Every structure is written in C-alpha cells, then in structure tokens.
Batch of 3 targets.
Target 1
Amino acid sequence: MTGLNRPARLNRALLGLSGLTLLAAGGFALGTYSGKLTWIDRSGPLLPENPPTWALYTTAAVAIVLGLLALRWLLAQLAQKPKTHTWRYESDPAAGRTELAASTAVAPFAEEVSAYAGVHSARATLAGPRHAPTLAVIIRAHDSGDLSAIRDRLDTEAVPRLRQALDLDTLPLTVEYRFTAAAGERVR
C-alpha cells in the first residue's frame, strides 16, 4: 500500500475493519446457534421483555448514522476524481505570469484519444502540482477495440505530445478501460 494516498489507505483500513467485525458477528451467531458457546443460553430471548425506551432510541440513532455513513461512502466511490490544480508559469514575475487550468490543458488530449480507432470516448484528468503531475485517463472502448494498439498510440503519440506542450520531462499515466457495445448495437 505504499503507492496509495492517505484517503485510499483509510478507505481500505475501514473496509478491512468492517469486514472483520462482520466476520466476528457471524462467527458469534453461528457459535451460539450450534451450541458451541455454552455461556449463552441459545433458547433464551435475544432482548429482555421490555427494553428501556432509551435503548430503542439509541439503537435507531446508531442505525441511521451508520446508514448515512455507508451512503456517503458509496457516493464518494462513484465521484472519486483526482484533485486538479491551476498551473502557473512565471519565468520573470515582473513581466507577469500565465495561468493554465489543468482541465484546459488536457481537453485537446482527450479529443485526440477519442478519435482513435476503437475508442468511443475518453476523459482525462491532470492532477497534482506542476512539479509532480499525474495523468489519469478513462477510455470507453468498443468491445472490438484493440486495447494494445490504443495503449501504444497513447505512449508513442498522445502522451509525448502533451508532455511537450506542458514542458514536462515525465508524466506518470494511469489508464482505465471501460467497454461499450459496438456502434449501432442496442439491447431492446
């Protein structure tokens, strides 16, 4: 997990903790049901006859909070996108500076990749500051698209051209491929 950022490490840690908690609860329930846990009467009631009112309200509040946290986590997974920056080019601060939004810088790149054979659409995000940028590309390719040819064109044409335009020595790249049905095919 050395290459993961802090939110990703926290995300994995919380998922692992949730999984272990659910495994323990399941093991406890199976042990009780099978009679392996002798210190619990398996024929006894789960709750007392009339639990206190505060216990019911507390249980409902905890369930609502956990449900909202789970919903927030799910929405965060859908909307996860690297943080972009505005790059500043200043060789002589007295003469002025040029600012370039990262989204503006990658728009021609995404258009170029979208025109490749086998590509339905492409979306690119340039994240990080100018001294340590990262390019994340999501390519929606047709089922019949040649992924190795697309990746080869990325590595030999599109990324070097973007690096040259942005005056960068290196530009780390991550590519995510998503598949779409071939043009014209529809499911009815």
Note: The helical segments are 6-34, 53-78, 102-114, 147-166.
Target 2
Amino acid sequence: MIELEYFLSKANDEVLVYQVIQFSPEDPWRVVLNGELLGSLDKFEGQWRQLSGEDFANQFFIDIVKFIDKQHFNDLSSALMSRWNKQIHEVVPRSDQEYLVVCKAGIGFKSFEGIFSRFVSGLLKDEWPINFRVFSHDFSEDFTLQAKPSVWKKNAVGWD
C-alpha cells in the first residue's frame, strides 16, 4: 500500500490534508478527506482519469495527478530497469518502501546480488530505507535487502 498526503491551502489560511492511497499497483488511487472517499483516479496509457466520485475541480485534478506523478517511487522501477536492463526482467512496487525484483534467466544470480547490494543505494531519492526482495527468473533463489539512500558527507571522498 502506498499512502501519500497532499496538502491544499485554501484562501482563508485553512489547510486541507488529503490522503491519496493505492492499495496495490493494479488498483486505482483513492482520494480521501477526513475519512471520506471522494473519488478514485487511474492512469491509462499515460492519461489520468477520474473513475469514481463527484467530478473534481479541474485545477485540483491537475494538481493531484502531478503530485502523484512526481513521487520518487514512480521513477525507481524505471531507474532499476534502466541501470540493470540485461539482468532485471521486472520490478513490482508493493509500496513506497518495498519492491519485488525478478531477474532474467541466464544471469549469475549470486554475482548480481553483490552488484545490486553495493550500488542500488545510489538510485534512491526518498529519505527512508527501501526493502527489496529479489528473485531469480524461476524463483528458486532470492535475497532480501534493505537499502538506505546514499548520503553525501562534507569533506568526504565519494558517497557514504
């Protein structure tokens, strides 16, 4: 499950806090305010659509889908596939803190484990640790890794 908080400032200095929730990658996003489901959104072939609820105001709709699109978890799957396109078959985000990775057939799985474990932190942009569950192509081997974002230390040579 991915749960985001979207803050909207009103003209009278009131701030509304919307919860934007996706229970699984196949599910639409649900927009909730004060415990009430206002509607659901999904992206089809690159285009966002509202699936349920009263129609959102046009600017609110534009702003909330931009907010969802700019979250780092949307980019991490693509970054992993791009970085290790010869080794990774599929990346499935389970939440903003957990990803499943399935490797391609014919790779040295143990070798990939070492490389992935050493360098994946450099791709992380969120402030929290990410849990990866990585499987061989036939699911006969796997490893789990909790990766923390790389942090730049002043006067250090390279990333910590």
Note: The longest helix spans residues 58-69.
Target 3
Amino acid sequence: MFPTIPFRMMRLASALVVLTGALVLVAPLSLRSAVLSDKPAVDLLTFYGVTAGAYGLLPFVRRGDIVMVAMWVVLGVGVAPCFVGQELSPPHMFAGMAGVLLAAGPIYIARFRQIAQGDIRFHRRRETEAGV
C-alpha cells in the first residue's frame, strides 16, 4: 500500500538533516565580529549543544562518528575566517573542541562502565550469529 523507505536511506537522510542544522547553527561563529560576541564561551556552549543534540537525534549513528563530524565542523568554523583574510583564533578552536568533548565524554564514560561491569558483546552488531 505505502511505499517503504529502506532503513539505510532513512538513517542517511536524518544524518544529513542534523548535519545541515548543525552547520546552520554554527555558521555565525565564523562571522564572530559581525554576529556574536567574541567570547570563547559562546563557542563552547554552541558546540556542546550541537553535539549533545546530535547524540539525541541520531540514536543509530555510532558515537565515534558523531564526535568525528563535530570535530570536523569545529575545524571548518575555525579555518573559515582565513578565507576572508583573518587569522585563526586558537581560544575559539579550543573552546569548540572542549564543547564537543564535554558532550561526548559522558557517553564514553558510560560505555567504559559497561565494559568494566562485564557487559560486552561477543558478536558485533552487524554480524549475524548464523555467520559464526
């Protein structure tokens, strides 16, 4: 009756929506002097919120992938002013990285606790038991 969308396409579409939303939220950071105040705390809070939001909105994306994309966005926002003749701002880049790490840290700590308690998977998520 209804056309079905493959689960992989739905995951890809949701990841692209979240990435686009993140870029729209952090794009003003590359135009700091014109749009926002020039305080690194703004970067920290923005990247913390974007990364935490990505973890909440993309439950089926691996936790390491979200951190890597967020760090690439930090790098892109940090390097973007160079294209208009401005210099890099290390405090802002480190604040962005700290925001990403503050959002990702509790997730990795929770996984470490699971492993320490013996909650490990003998089979990888993408493998089937029949294939063993």
Note: The CA atoms of residues 84 and 120 lie 49 Å apart.
